[in-house]
Amino acid sequence: PVTDGSRELHSLCAQLEFLLQFDLKEKRSFFGQRKDYWDFLCQGLERCRQEHEGIHFVTSLDKLKTPVGRGRAFLRYCLVHQQLAESLQLCLLDPESLREWYYARSPFLSPRHRAEILGSLYELDCVTFHLAL
After folding, report:
1. Does the global pTM surpass 0.70?
2. Which residues neighbour 44 within 8 Å (Cβ) at sequence distance 6 or greater?
3. CA angle 102-108-109, nearest 5°?
4. Which of 16, 32, 53, 124 has the smallest CB count inside 10 Å?
5. Distance in angstroms (rounded) separating the CA atoms of residues 9 and 132
6. Domains of the chain, earliest start first
C-alpha cells in the first residue's frame, strides 16, 4: 500500500494539484477570497446532485481554512476510497461549466486529454492508499 511517507504519493498529489490549477480562471467569493479547484469540485459534484462523502468529510474538518487545503484533503480522501477518477469525471461532464472555470489551455477542455487523464486516474483504483485523513 501507498502511505504518507511515499515519495510517489507526494509527486502524484503535486501533479494532480497542478492539473486542477492549470489555466484555472481567477474567481472570488462574495467576501473576496480567491476560489480554487476545491470550489470547482464542490460545484461540479453539487451540479450532478451527488451527495459526496468526501465533500462532507472535508467540510467537517475545522483545521482546514483555505480552499487549497480543502482541495488537498479531498484528493487524499478520494485516493483512500478509490473515488478520484469517478469524482473528477462527474465534475468534467458539463462543457459549459468547464469553460466557466478554465481558460482554453486547460487539458480538461480537450476531449482527448480529458480521456487520457481520467483513464490514468481510473488505473489508480487498483492501488491501495493508506493515508492519514
Report:
1. yes
2. 90, 91, 92, 93, 94, 97
3. 70
4. 32
5. 12
6. 2-130 (1.20.58.900)
What number of H helices and E strands is found in the chain? 7, 2
Q: How high does pLDDT run on average in the chain?
A: 93
Helix (H) or strand (E) holding 2: strand 2-3
What's the CA gap between 97 and 123, in Å, rounded?
26
Pairing mode, if any, of strands 2-3 and 129-130? Answer: parallel
Model confidence at 113: pLDDT above 90: yes
**Which of 49, 109, 107, 2 is CA-nearest to residue 75?**
2
Per-residue pLDDT band for 42 (boundaries 50, 70, 90) equals very high
For 63-72, the pLDDT digits (tens) are 998 999 999 9
